[in-house]
From TrEMBL:
The keyword Nucleotide-binding applies. Residues 2-241 form the ABC transporter domain. GO terms for molecular function: ATP binding; ATP hydrolysis activity; transmembrane transporter activity. Pfam families: ABC_tran (PF00005). Keywords: ATP-binding, Nucleotide-binding. The keyword rRNA-binding does not apply. This is Fe-S cluster assembly ATP-binding protein. InterPro entries: AAA+_ATPase, ABC_transporter-like_ATP-bd, ABC_transporter-like_CS, ABC_transpr_LolD-like, P-loop_NTPase. GO terms for cellular component: plasma membrane. PANTHER family: IMPORT ATP-BINDING PROTEIN.
């Protein structure tokens, strides 16, 4: 349904902070098919290429080579707004805050309607019950959790075929992660949303039908959590050291 065919993403030497003598390949000849309606968690060490992969699917970054096929059409060259029209929506790791704009404005744009009943229905799906929240200004005064809820609501409001969330638990307290996972699972179940979550969080790894472990811009493992356990396992039996290139990175999976 969403096929990544041998995709590579390379950045020129001048764009990297390293003094490398040549271009740097961030995603390397990666192929994978996301099936319609599946729940996928993309995980892996810091800097392995997870966000880059998500951005390539959305078209925020353009692949250097390979193909991205969505429902039979080649979308590799389509700009973000065209991919969005086709049903692919991206939730940012650090959502933008706009001076003077209210949540109602953002949500109305996302939903394509300012019908209050519809907006209320959407905010209640993300666990916001207060109508007053709609008129909150989306600025630096919002908490990390509030801004994340707004971001989730704007993704959901678009009724995406494919929803991509980059570390949706950033700034969210431990007690809110469970309901957030539930929300995304419900969206998957009820709207058949293909859900792709970039996360280090165990709750999302457990919720996923399929896990993709990214290492150095390649897929180190794809499959269910049970199959990944031996790789992700902690302490003495941790085999992820090998994938992570070291104890320090492996710590994040414990
Ligand atoms: N446009 C770019 N130019 C130069 N380097 C880049 C670019 N995009 C990504 N990188 C580098 O590619 C590597 C992978 O970045 P990416 O953000 O995809 O990692 P990640 O796996 O999402 O990490 P994290 O878990 O820390 O969020 C990093 O070293 C990053 O600095």
């Amino acid at each position: 349904m969403l096929e990544l065919k041998n995709i590579t993403y390379r950045v020129p030497e001048s764009d990297t902070d390293a003094q490398s003598p040549s271009d740097r390949t961030i995603i390397h000849d990666l192929s994978f098919t996301f099936e319609a309606g599946g729940f996928y968690a993309i995980t892996g060490p810091n800097g392995s290429g997870k966000t880059t992969l998500a951005k390539l699917i959305m078209g925020i970054n353009e692949i250097t080579s390979g193909k991205i096929i969505f429902n039979g059409s080649d979308i590799s060259k389509l700009p973000i707004h065209e991919r969005s029209k086709a049903g692919i929506v991206y939730g940012f790791q650090h959502p933008a805050r706009f001076k003077g704009t209210t949540f109602r404005d953002l949500l109305s744009i996302a939903a394509g309607s300012d019908d209050e009943e519809k907006l209320i229905e959407i905010i209640s799906r993300v666990g916001v019950c207060s109508l007053e929240f709609l008129d909150k200004r989306v600025d630096s005064k919002l908490s990390g959790g509030e801004i994340k809820k707004i971001e989730l609501a704007t993704v959901i409001a678009k009724n995406p075929k494919v929803a991509i969330y980059d570390e949706p638990d950033t700034g969210i307290d431990l007690w809110t992660i469970g309901p957030m996972v539930e929300l995304l699972k419900r969206e998957q179940r009820e709207n058949k949303t293909t859900t792709i979550v970039v996360s280090h969080n165990k709750a999302f790894l457990e919720a996923a039908d399929t896990l993709l472990l990214i290492k150095d811009g390649e897929i180190g493992y794809s499959g269910d959590l049970a199959g990944a356990v031996s790789i992700l396992e902690d302490s003495s039996v941790c085999k992820f050291n090998e994938l992570c290139q070291g104890e320090e990175n492996a710590q994040c999976y414990r």
